[in-house]
Amino acid sequence: MLQRNLLYTGITRAKRLLILVGSREALAAAVRTPGRRTPPHRSHPPPPPT
Hints:
By secondary structure, this protein is mostly helical.
């Protein structure tokens, strides 16, 4: 689960204190690994082709 977006979310949600536990190598790997973004859910089906 070493992904940049999860690391960023954890860092930005910290209100008063942030403690990172792990090795520098693990942190560097997380920064290098882009997270997978899921596409937005569509509430309506696409319009039919014309």
